[in-house]
Design a protein that fits this description.
The protein is 45% helix and 27% strand. It is an alpha+beta fold. The chain is elongated and about 75 Å long.
Length: 193
């Protein structure tokens, strides 16, 4: 009985180990194991980086339609994106999560969306749907559209969800709607000076 233990100690001290697996014997040396660990580590790092890139994806695109399309700097796009996102977060109910409160039919919502896109508006489009937390609960958002055709404030607020349905939002912050319209007007006026 002491011989197998003694033999195993000799194998370990020499840096060699054998493993019998059914019909074959695998031999591991310290260098061989080290190479396998390095390869495994490399595969893990590549997988981690690739997964991170897939999750991050490209940034949202923002389109301002005001008497045609308006070119914006990256800083202006970021500012408008932040304003639109903050406005959406104040939405207290929507046509999907609260159909008894916001009682618009699909045809009415689609018409509102079409009318908004045919006029002055701001649209933020994400590369893939994301979950946004609003005051009225979580919503799936692929695109946010805010109408800019009124003289007093930005409205209506609409989103496209992950399934491609148009969602109307209600009871959102009026002060932010006024501020968003003022921000857009200032950008457009400064852009055409």
């Amino acid at each position: 009985m002491t011989q197998p233990v003694l033999r195993r100690r000799e194998e370990l001290s020499s840096g060699r180990s054998t493993l019998a697996t059914g019909c074959s014997t695998l031999e591991y040396t310290k260098g061989n194991v080290m190479k396998r660990c390095i390869v495994l580590f490399f595969v893990m790092v590549v997988t981690w980086v690739w997964t991170g890139c897939q999750m991050a994806g490209p940034p949202a695109t923002l389109r301002l339609s005001w008497a045609g399309s308006v070119s914006l700097t990256e800083e202006q796009r970021d500012s408008l994106h932040e304003s639109v996102s903050a406005l959406l977060a104040t939405s207290q109910f929507n046509s999907v999560g609260h159909p008894k409160i916001l009682t618009l039919g699909n045809a009415e919502i689609q018409k509102q969306y079409d009318d908004t896109l045919s006029g002055e508006h701001l649209a933020v489009t994400y590369p893939r749907p994301k979950i946004v937390t609003t005051m009225g609960g979580e919503v799936s958002v692929l695109k946010i559209v805010v109408g800019l055709g009124r003289d007093d404030y930005a409205s209506p607020l609409l989103t496209i969800d992950g399934a491609g349905a148009v969602v109307a939002h209600g009871k959102y912050n009026g002060g932010m709607c006024i501020a968003l319209l003022d921000e857009v007007r200032q950008l457009v006026e400064n852009g055409f000076d």
